[in-house]
Design brief:
Number of strands: 8
Strand order of the largest sheet: 2-3-4-1-5
CATH superfamily of the domain at 152-352: P-loop containing nucleotide triphosphate hydrolases
Low-confidence stretches: 1-63, 114-138
Radius of gyration: 30 Å
Distance between the termini: 73 Å
Number of helices: 37
CATH topology of the domain at 152-352: Rossmann fold
Strand content: 5-15%
């Protein structure tokens, strides 16, 4: 039941359709439109003032219809928290808005439990044709957001379930530029308005990111704002395990001990269980919405953690939202296997984002560029872009008001694809800016000013800063929050377009310069960034040779093993052996210690990713490493290789007994090592 004052507001709105709105001053109307475009998104562009494009009365009326519909939807469910949040959002921009004032008062009374006995059916009108015609959603996150009504209904339902203690996992899928991140942002604002804490983690496209990178980001953000007491209470004994990948924990808990050494699989289970326990405990204090963006780039370890967590959050106040490009997920893609596992979980729901309709394309252009399209123009744009919001936004950046109103042939210059649209934006930039962006595209999605400064020696530091400011101004790149000198491309498609325009020769040369520049930049901490360095030295191998590629591949592989990221470790060790031209098959002993370490690492990684007969191959690789260690007198490594648990209770590998016997001859009979060997 609605409070009486709320009933009065609705009755007023039914009797007076538009006179009150038309009576608003031009200043208020313009401010509403300007406010809706002050928030910069990927689709926003530099535009003249709002009054240039909009009829103040019509614009105010359009926005007011959106306000009315959204407030009505929340009120019809008697969701007073949503009503209050949306009403406050309206009044921020229009303090005199009578509907907003009435809804806020009604929400206050509703939350206090002082509801009047009023029949909903007598006061809540059915949506009118005028409202139905307006499909654009009010954007809570700022900027322009159209369509997605069905999708947002599904997402809000998942949010409500999570808030009530029924954890949910939602996957947002669609092609690049379709609006997955933008939709997640809208849901995030709703979640925050309902009292949830929203944490974001982004997956990195390149090979330089450490295992669990998206999880590390969101947990790091949580740890940074939490007190030591809170961390201790929520993580409990698992804090030491989580600190192995989120090092910031030790900054808050300096006396934290080191977890006991376990074999690989038990250790990984311990880590996953510790993270799960922590997140569930944190959600008891405050509901959590965790966003994993660009999941198609996630490492295998991150996907395994997601699978583990999905089985455990059914009774918690946790909402997991993942986004991925479905066009990049083939049957053999690691994410495909994960989705096949998740689909069996009751908490899992996939939301597919498709292209906007022709009508929604027209609304997007009106909201972002301030231009009302003819049906013919909307049809052309929709056909050329297939309703992809990013494509539509890029097209409208390059078409002026005069094109639409005075030049009937404007449609002929619409680009065939986003690369053409981005190319025209790049052509308007200075040579220094284009040079900077091209170099940054080879570094990756994220890049650092000081690295670019060391790479671009032909321009001054001030010129580089000016170039970066130029790129920020046109929203090609953005500075990461809470950081100094760290930037990222605003959209992966921009970085990809720049990268693909480079010739192979130039790519290799830039990778070589970047690899050497990073090595200098990191100095004594280079080993901490082994994954990143291994990637660039691999891409530059024809120029830099195999030496550093092998060195950093070995480091990266060992680090991946330490964090139980076995698939990643496998890749690094194989890459290092290939660079050394060492065959994976055969029985010859390793030729040197580096080769032995690579083979030992490969055997360890394989033993945790294969089974059955393939374990025999892993043991053969292990034996080659053992042979070198034994002949070189490296007893410690030889014993470590012999004791590595490739053997399983269900599968006994021929030759293991002989290897253990050989290892026994390398150590004193009464030594601890001998006892361990005899116990196998």
């Amino acid at each position: 039941m609605f409070p009486l004052e709320f009933s009065s507001a609705l009755t007023h709105r039914q009797l007076d359709c538009s006179q009150a709105r038309i009576a608003r001053t031009n200043t208020v109307a313009w401010s509403l439109d300007a406010a809706s475009r002050e928030h910069h998104t990927l689709l926003d562009v530099d535009k003249p003032p709002a009054a240039t494009y909009y009829s103040p009365i019509m614009a105010s009326d359009r926005i007011q219809r959106q306000i009315d519909r959204l407030l009505d939807e929340a009120a019809a469910r008697q969701d007073w928290e949503i009503v209050r949040a949306r009403a406050q959002h309206v009044l921020t921009f229009d303090p005199e808005n009578r509907e907003g004032q009435a809804f806020l008062s009604a929400a206050t009374r509703g939350l206090e439990g002082h509801q009047a006995a009023v029949d909903l059916t007598t006061v809540v009108e059915q949506p009118t044709a005028a409202v139905d015609d307006v499909q654009a959603q009010d954007s809570l996150a700022g900027g322009v957001f159209v369509g997605r009504l069905r999708e947002m209904d599904d997402l809000q339902a998942a949010l409500e379930d999570a808030l009530s203690g029924r954890g949910r996992l939602v996957a947002l899928s669609g092609e690049p530029g379709i609006g997955k991140t933008r939709t997640a942002q809208e849901l995030a604002v709703l979640a925050e308005q309902r009292g949830a804490l929203v944490l974001w983690g982004w997956c990195y496209e390149g090979e330089g990111a450490p295992p669990y990178w998206p999880w590390v980001q969101l947990m790091r953000a949580y740890v940074q704002q939490a007190s030591a007491e809170q961390i201790t209470a929520e993580m409990g004994p698992g804090a030491a395990n989580i600190a192995e990948i989120v090092t910031e924990i030790r900054g808050k808990l300096p006396d934290l001990g080191t977890p006991p050494v376990l074999e690989q699989e038990p250790a990984r289970f311990r880590l996953f269980d510790s993270i799960t326990t922590f997140l569930k405990n944190a959600a008891q204090r405050q509901p959590l919405m965790l966003v994993l963006d660009d999941l198609h780039w996630a490492d295998r370890s991150s996907l395994l953690l997601l699978e583990f967590l999905a089985r455990e959050i059914g009774t918690s106040r946790l909402l997991l939202v993942c986004s991925y490009r479905d066009v990049e997920v083939s049957r053999r893609h690691p994410l495909s296997q994960t989705l096949g596992t998740l689909v069996r979980e009751q908490i899992f729901h996939r939301v597919q984002l498709d292209g906007l309709t022709q009508q929604e394309v027209g609304e997007l252009v009106e909201g972002s560029a301030g231009i009302t399209l003819t049906l013919e123009a909307a049809e052309v744009i929709h056909k050329r872009t297939d309703g992809n919001p990013f494509f539509v936004g890029e097209v409208t950046r390059n078409v002026t008001l005069e094109n639409f109103t005075e030049d009937p042939g404007w449609a002929s210059i619409i680009p065939e694809g986003v690369r053409d649209a981005i190319g025209r934006r790049l052509n308007r930039l200075s040579d220094h800016c284009n040079q900077m962006l091209t170099t940054a595209s080879v570094v990756g999605q994220e890049f650092e000013f000081r690295l670019l400064n060391s790479l671009m020696s032909d321009i001054t530091e001030d010129q580089l800063l000016a170039a970066m400011d130029e790129a920020v101004e046109v929203q090609l790149i953005e500075e990461l929050p809470n950081s100094v000198g760290l930037y990222q491309f605003t959209h992966a498609l921009i970085q990809e377009t720049l990268f693909e325009e480079l010739s192979t020769t130039r790519r290799v040369r830039l990778h070589a310069r970047i690899a050497e520049g990073l090595e200098t930049l990191y100095g004594n901490d280079a080993d901490v960034h082994a994954e990143e360095l291994a990637y660039h030295f691999a891409e530059a191998q024809t120029l830099t040779g195999p030496e550093k590629l092998v060195r950093y591949s070995l480091m990266a592989g060992q680090q991946a093993l330490a964090s139980y990221a076995y698939d990643d470790a496998l890749t690094y060790f194989e890459k290092g052996l290939a660079a050394r031209d060492i065959a994976l098959s055969g029985t010859d002993a390793a030729c040197d210690e580096e080769a032995a370490d690579l083979l030992f690492g490969l055997a360890r990684a394989r033993s945790n990713t294969v089974s059955g007969q393939q374990l025999v191959e892993a043991f053969a690789i292990l034996s080659r490493a053992f042979d070198y260690y034994a002949e070189a007198g490296n007893v410690a490594q030889a014993v470590a290789a012999a004791l590595f648990p490739i053997v399983t209770p269900s599968y006994r590998i021929p030759g293991i007994t002989g290897l253990l016997a050989r290892a026994l001859t390398l150590v004193p009979a009464d030594s601890h090592e001998a006892g361990r060997i005899l116990c196998v």
